[in-house]
Amino acid sequence: MLLNPNTIQLSEIFTSIEGEGILFGTKTLFVRMAGCHLKCRWCDTSYALPMFSGNNYSIDYVKKLIADHLQPFTYKVNFTGGEPLVQHEAVIELAKFVREKGLTTYLESACYDSDRFAKLLPYIDICKVEFKMSDSEVVDMNHYDNLLQNEIRCLMASVSNRKITYIKIVVTNSTDTKEFAVLVGNIFHHVSTEYIDGFVIQPSDTIDKPTTERLLRFYDIVCSHYREVRIIPQLHKQMGAR
After folding, report:
1. Which residues are CB-contacts of 56 (< 8 A; sequence separation ≥ 6)?
2. 171 vs 41, 201, 207, 219, CA distance in Å?
3. Which helix (DSSP H) or strand (DSSP E) does residue 10 occupy?
4. Global pTM value
5. How far apart are CA 188 and CA 225, in angstroms?
6. What confidence tens digit (pLDDT) does each residue in 175-225 have?
7. Which CATH architecture has domain 7-239?
8. Quick check: 97 pLDDT over 70?
9. Domain ranges in the chain?
C-alpha cells in the first residue's frame, strides 16, 4: 500500500471517555487512523479497517482538527485505529504537534512492525502493547511467530526507553490457556516486571465471549508472574460512550 507521507487517512477524531486499559475513565481525544491489515475476528471498529476508508487530509489540516477538538482538562491524545503504525510517519508529525501543546501522547498498537514502532516511540509517552493470540486470526500460522517477535521487540523498546508501558491481550472462550501461558512466560522472560505498568486481560465483547471461569484461569496465569493484572472489559460500551 502506498500512502502520501504528506497526507493522512483519518477515520475519525472525537473526545470521549477512555474505556480500555489502565487509564480507563480519563478524558481523551481519540485520533483514529484508517487502515489495518490484521483484521482481528473480534474487531469492533471494522469501519476503520479498509486502507482507504475515512478521509484523506493534509497533515496541517489534521493538526487544525486536533486543535479544534481539544477540550479543557483532556488527559491525553490517543492515536488508535485501524492501526497507527500503517501511517507511522504521519503519526510522528501529529504526536510532535500534540506534545508542543503540552499534552500526553498515547499509542494503541498491535506492534506488528518493530522498526516503525522504534521511529515513532520518541514522540509517545504511553504505549499499549497488544499481543494477539492465534485465535484472533490476524495472520496465518506460518507468519504468527514473526508477529509475536515484533510485539516482543516493541515491548522491550518501550520499557528500555522508560515509557509508561502496559500489555493488553484480548481473549475469547476459544483462546487456548496453554498457548496463553507460553506467551506470558515469553513476555516476562524478555522484560522485567518492574518496568511494566499494568497487564490487562480484555474479554471479547461480541464474538465468542469467555466465561468467568476461563477469565479467572487467564488471570491466574499472569498473576503467577506479575500481580498488577486486571480483567477489564470495554467499559465505554457499558457507559454508552463512543
Report:
1. 4, 7, 8, 9, 10
2. 11, 7, 10, 11
3. strand 7-17
4. 0.94
5. 7
6. 999 999 999 999 999 999 999 999 999 999 888 999 999 999 999 999 999
7. Alpha-Beta Barrel (3.20)
8. yes
9. 7-239
